């Protein structure tokens, strides 16, 4: 309680803003506690009151004052084609802003599948060359928190860990926090007994669907998707895609938009 709050600069590249939408719905911890008591969210062009020159001045001031001590959170990614002209922030390519702010940060959090993997804007043929953050920022630790979007409590959980222990959370080989991405959806799915018993939904609205059978034959990617949806769930633990009757599309996995796509498969 006596420690100064850690400054967080939250940048937005090519993205849809739903990572922020998810973040502001965190219930444990409550997002207002995170923003008002735990971190100092000094720059976030979606959530901040300031705009224009005033906003950019804050960015500059925090970078100067907290050199090496602030966290850079990135939602979205930089497009590299045509000198980055597909994403312009304050009159400059987003790539410039990203590299500048990353140069003095302590660590980078890559929010969501856009920042972690590229996501739908990087789908073949990727006309803007949308590029994941770790391929551009190579001299800082990059913590990937994938998902489209990530679960709110996973986002605030990662921040809470970093503030409480003053270190990065243990990561897997792909740079994802093990505590949330150490298991597959399939490992803890409540429909798993039906999978093991060979009871599958064969078509939408069939008898198996009404009985809540396994969605594997409908293209569910739970067996190859690392995320916390089947344990933490969404909307304060209420549900997750499979519980709503739709298979997992693997939204936290690399290339989910191109590779064996759920929608191609069905
Ligand atoms: Fe939106 Fe998904 Fe990108 Fe997050 S990861 S900004 S939810 S497209
Ligand atoms: Fe696995 Fe998907 Fe079936 Fe759940 S619904 S048991 S995640 S294949
Ligand atoms: Fe995404 Fe699959 Fe979870 S689609 S939200 S990783 S259940």
Q: Into which percentage range does the β-strand content fall?
A: 5-15%
Uncertain segments are none
Question: Approximately how much helix is present in the residues?
Answer: 25-40%
N-C termini distance: 52 Å
Mean pLDDT: 95
Count every helix, treating DSSP H or I runs of 4 or more residues as helices: 10
Strand order of the largest sheet: 2-1-3-6-7
The bound ligands are:
iron/sulfur cluster, FE3-S4 cluster
Please tell me how large the radius of gyration is: 19 Å
Shape summary: globular
Strand runs, count: 7
Structural class of the secondary elements?
A: alpha/beta
Order of helices and strands: EHHEHEEEHEHEHHHHH
Largest sheet: 5 strands, parallel
Protein name: hydrogenase (acceptor)
GO molecular function: 3 iron, 4 sulfur cluster binding; 4 iron, 4 sulfur cluster binding; electron transfer activity; ferredoxin hydrogenase activity; hydrogenase (acceptor) activity; metal ion binding
Keywords: 3Fe-4S, 4Fe-4S, Cell membrane, Iron, Iron-sulfur, Membrane, Metal-binding, Oxidoreductase, Signal
Main location: membrane
């Amino acid at each position: 309680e006596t420690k100064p709050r850690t400054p967080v600069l939250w940048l937005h590249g090519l993205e849809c803003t739903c990572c922020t939408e998810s973040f502001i719905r965190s219930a444990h911890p409550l997002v207002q506690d995170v923003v008002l008591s735990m971190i100092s969210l000094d720059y976030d062009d979606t959530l901040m009151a300031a705009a224009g020159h005033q906003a950019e001045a804050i960015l500059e001031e925090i970078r100067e004052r907290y050199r090496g001590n602030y966290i850079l959170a990135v939602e979205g990614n930089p497009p590299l084609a045509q000198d980055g002209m597909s994403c312009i922030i304050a009159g400059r390519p987003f790539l410039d802003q990203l590299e500048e702010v990353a140069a003095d940060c302590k660590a980078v959090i890559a929010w969501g599948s856009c920042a972690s993997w590229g996501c739908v804007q990087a789908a073949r043929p990727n006309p803007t060359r949308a590029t994941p953050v770790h391929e551009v920022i190579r001299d800082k630790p990059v913590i990937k928190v994938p998902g489209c979007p990530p679960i709110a409590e996973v986002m605030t959980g990662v921040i809470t860990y970093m503030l409480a222990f003053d270190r990065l959370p243990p990561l897997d080989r792909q740079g994802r926090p093990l505590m949330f991405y150490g298991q597959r959806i399939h490992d803890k799915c409540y429909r798993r007994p039906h999978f093991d018993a060979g009871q599958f939904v064969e078509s939408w609205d069939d008898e198996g669907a009404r009985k809540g059978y396994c969605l594997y034959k409908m293209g569910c990617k739970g067996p190859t998707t690392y995320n916390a949806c089947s344990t933490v769930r969404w909307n304060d633990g209420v549900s997750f895609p499979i519980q709503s009757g739709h298979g997992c599309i693997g939204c936290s996995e690399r290339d989910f938009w191109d590779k064996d796509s759920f929608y191609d498969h069905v």
